[in-house]
Write a structure and sequence with these properties.
Radius of gyration: 17 Å
Order of helices and strands: EHEEHEEHEEH
CATH topology of the largest domain: Rossmann fold
Structural class: alpha/beta
Strand content: 5-15%
CATH architecture of the largest domain: 3-Layer(aba) Sandwich
CATH class of the largest domain: Alpha Beta
Oligomer: single chain
Number of helices: 4
Length: about 130
């Protein structure tokens, strides 16, 4: 059957799709924590080959690409709000520094994260972010 694009989630399907074709574009949805070191792509900015998509890696390169796409979609933005759904200590320990580094390169300001632990917290999160 002719296929125009393959969409995969998770590392095993990514590798299976890559071994099946070098011609059909493959889009991974959080298919790897570090596709560069795993040898899936040359870099996040320029993957090369027929694989592209998103990762769940915590890195300035990943955040840079995400923020770049956001800035392209909304060119006038200058501040970015962050919703966080687990312990704030984890955000500050693992995510804050690479996210800030990526934002600085794009002249964006990251607002302090707002914790949202359930659906009931969404309205309050918006109110906090408005302030």
């Amino acid at each position: 059957m002719p296929v125009d694009v393959i969409i995969v989630g998770g590392p095993t399907p990514v590798r299976a799709a890559m071994s099946a074709t070098t011609r059909i574009p493959i889009v991974m949805i959080v298919g790897s924590s570090d596709p560069v070191s795993e040898g899936l792509v040359k870099s996040l900015a320029h993957p090369g080959g027929n694989l592209t998509g998103s990762t769940y890696a915590v890195s300035p390169e990943r955040f840079g690409k995400q923020l770049e796409l956001l800035k392209e979609a909304a060119p006038g933005i200058s501040r970015i709000g962050v919703w966080w759904d687990i312990q704030m200590a984890i955000f500050h320990q693992s995510w804050a520094v690479p996210l800030e580094a990526a934002a600085r390169k794009l002249s964006l300001q990251i607002q302090p994260p707002v914790q949202v632990l359930s659906r009931d917290g969404v309205e309050g999160a918006f109110a906090t972010m408005k302030q």
